[in-house]
């Protein structure tokens, strides 16, 4: 089968779910927005997660879907003005063989995508902040179903002297274990960045080199 014919067959199998329809989006994959804390203090930071529950033998795609005709799982985070949202942290994907020798990058089971929200220093105790996540994904087995849902949660702002309890501790512990190891903690490999120019002036063009030092007897792919 040619690549063009394969793509045509794949598109014919894609069943769209209505945008924002959580019940239909949850046909083979369910998503929920979780907080790691019951509240947030002015200037404080709380970790949130979009947690998936994917039906057995089905999968969604990583942020880079690889060589398949899949679609990346995408989060659009909306927070109140003045609140900061960190980059999203995806779990390590599974390399999944596809036709034509390609590999896609998939997530199975109950993966979670983490991000942090930081309240402004002048956030008013007693107020509540609504954090929303517009989430889209493609869940596949032999057929593929498009999921698209808007999730939201409220974070109460409490005084700096107040106690904030942790929640969903087991789920966040599992999610953090699934993240890539930070470069500083990696064994057998050191990563350095060299700007290749010093000093650098505004408007200058320059190369950035990423230098990998792999311990003898080991290799990377």
Summary tags:
single chain; 221 residues; mainly beta; Immunoglobulin-like; 2 domains; four-stranded antiparallel beta sheet; 3 helices; 13 strands; globular; disordered N terminus
What does this structure look like?
There is one protein chain. The protein has 2 domains: 3-179, Immunoglobulin-like; 181-221, no CATH class. Helices cover 11% and strands 40% of the residues. The protein is built from 3 helices and 13 strands, in the order αβαββββββββββαββ. The strands form 4 sheets. A 4-stranded mixed β-sheet has the order 1-11-10-5.
Short description:
The chain has about 220 residues and is mostly beta strands. It has helices at about 5-15, 20-25, 170-175; strands at about 15, 30-35, 45-55, 60-65, 75-80, 85, 95, 105, 110-120, 130-140, 145-155, 190-195, 210-215. The protein has two domains: about 5-180, Immunoglobulin-like (Sandwich), CATH 2.60.40.10; about 180-220, no CATH class.
